[in-house]
Amino acid sequence: MPTEKDYKMIEKATLYDLRLIFTTGEKDTYTREEIVELLDKIALAKDQE
Fold this sequence. Notes:
This protein has helices at 4-24, 32-48. The chain is elongated and about 40 Å long. By secondary structure, it is mainly alpha-helical. The protein is built from 2 helices and no strands. The protein has one domain.
C-alpha cells in the first residue's frame, strides 16, 4: 500500500512531466483545452505503466 511519501514522489514526478512538456514544446502559450488535453495524456500514460 502506498505511503504518503510515495504519493508525494508521484506528485513531484507528475509535475516534472508537465514541466518537460511545457519547456520542450514549440509553443509559448497554451489554451485551457490544450492543458487539459496534456493532463489527460499524462494520466493515460501513467495508467499504461
